[in-house]
Amino acid sequence: MKFAPFVNLLTGQGAEAWDILTESRLALDRGEDVIVLSIGDPDFQTSAFVVNAAIEAMRNGDTHYTELEGRQSLRRAIAEKASRSAGIAIDGDWVTVLAGTQNAFYSACRCLFGVGDEVIVLDPAYVTYEASIASTGARQVRVPQPSDSGFRPDIEAISRAITPSTRGIVFSNPSNPTGVALTLSELEGLARLAVDHDLWVLVDEVYGDLVFDGTHHSIMGMPGMLERTVTVSSVSKSYAMTGWRCGWAIGPPELGEHLRKMALINLYGLPGFVMEAADAALRHGDQEIEVARDTYRERRNLVVEKLQAARALPVLVPEAGMFLMADVRAHNPDANSFAWDLYKTTGVSVLDAGAFGVTSQGWIRISYGVDEQRLEEACRRIIAFTHS
Ligand SMILES: Cc1ncc(COP(=O)(O)O)c(C=O)c1O
Q1: pLDDT grade, residue 312 (50/70/90)?
Q2: Residue 10 pLDDT level (bands cut at 50, 70, 90)
C-alpha cells in the first residue's frame, strides 16, 4: 500500500543522530556501564503535591472529556506566569492548552503558515521545527547564527533573508541546543524586523524558567509584538513533567479559535487530571523551578570547569537550559563519528549537534540531565578519550 507524501516530511535533517540515544538506552536497560547524555529529560521526580493533585482529580471522577481550549483556571495560571516574563498583562483568553510545547508548536505552524510561504528559522534549531513547518507546505529558510560569535542571532543576516514571501520568524529562547538566552537588545532587533515586515514570530520558551544568570525576556511583551507573537511552552522542563504532556500556545484570541478547532479534530482536549496537576505546579511550584535552575546551574558549572581545566574540548558556556555545546572539530570534523567513537570507547552517549543545523556541525551536545556523580564520571571519560 502507498502512503501520502506527508510521511516523507516526517524525517527531519540528521534524524539518524538519534540512533546513539536509542542504542545507549537499550544498553542501559541491559545493565551496561553507559552514561546517557544525549537526551533532555529532567532526572527529578514530578513533585508529590503535583502527583497528588492528579490522583485526587482522578478519584473525584475527573476522567471525562474536557474543554477543548483547556480549563479556565489553568489558562489563567499560564497567563499570569506569561504576564510576568512579558512585563505586560495577558488574559487567559489568549491561552490554548495543548499536549506539550511540541504539539503547541506544530498546531501553531498549521495555523500560521501555508503553501508558498517562507519561514525564517534561526539555525541551529530544535530538530522538530523542520517537519512541523514542512507539514504546512511552507518553505523553511535557515539563517545561520554563527558558532564563532557564540551562536547569537545575526540580525543583519535575518534581515537579508526576508523576502515578500516571508511570513514568520521561528526560534527557541532560550535555545536548544546552544543554551543561548537572548538579550533585550537581540529581542528588540528581532521585534523590529517582525513589525517592519509584518511577520509572525513563533517562539518556543520551554527553557524560559531555566535561565541561570539574569532574567528571561519574552518577545511578546515588546512594542507591537503582542498581536504578532505566538509563544509556546509547557510544564515539561520547569517542573519535571515531560511525560504529562501539558503545554500551551499564547497568542491572539483569533488564533485561539483556530487552535480550538484543531484540537477538535485531533487532541480533543487534555485529560482533566493532567490539567489539575499542571495547575497545581504553576500555582505552587516556584520552589521546584528554583531547585531545578540551581541544580542545572551547578551541573553546568561542573562540566564547564572539568572540560576547560583539562583542555579537553572548547565549550560554549550555556546561559540556560540543560545542554552544553562542545566543539570537537580539532578531534574529528564529523561530530557524529566522534560521538560514536566516544560511546564505543567510553560508554558516554552524547549527540551530534549537526542534527540541529549546519551551523552546529562539528559540535556535540552534552546533556546535564543526570546526577553530579555520573556527570563527573562522564567528564572523566570524555577527558581521557580526548587526551588519548
Ligand atoms: C526547544 C524544545 N522545544 C520543545 C521541546 C518539547 O517540549 P514538550 O515536552 O513541552 O513538548 C523540547 C524538548 O526537549 C525542546 O528542547
Answers
A1: confident
A2: confident
CATH number of 48-284: 3.40.640.10
CB-based pocket (< 6 A), ligand 1: 40, 100-102, 126, 172, 176, 204, 206, 234, 236, 242, 247
Q: Is pTM beyond 0.90 here? A: yes
By most ligand atoms within 8 Å of CB, the mutation choice from 173, 176, 360 for ligand 1 is: 176
Nearest CA-CA partner of 34 in 307, 366, 378: 378
Per-residue CA distances from 87 to 205, 287, 384 (Å): 15, 21, 47
The neighbouring-strand residues paired with 229 are 201
Average pLDDT over residues 269-297: 97
C-alpha atoms less than 13 angstroms from C-alpha of 358 in its C-beta half-sphere: 5
Does pLDDT of 11 surpass 80? no
Quote the ligand 1 centre to 99 CA distance (angstroms): 11
Chain segment 321-374, per-residue pLDDT in tens: 999 999 999 999 999 999 999 999 999 999 999 999 999 999 999 999 999 999
Specify the residue with its C-alpha closest to ligand 1, atom 7: 101
List the residue whose alpha carbon is closest to atom 13 of ligand 1: 40
Ligand 1: centre distance to CA 234 (Å): 8
Dihedral of CA atoms 134, 70, 234, 238 in degrees, nearest 10, equals -170
State residue 12's pLDDT score: 65
CB environment 303-322: b (16+ within 10 A), e (fewer): bbebbeeeebbebbebbbbb
CATH of domain 5-45+287-387: 3.90.1150.10
Determine the Cα–Cα distance for residues 81 and 286; give it in Å rounded to an integer: 11
Cis bond before residue 5 (omega within 30° of 0): no
Give yes or no for residue 15 having a pLDDT over 80: no
Residue bearing the CA closest to ligand 1, atom 16: 176
Domain boundaries, the chain: 5-45+287-387, 48-284
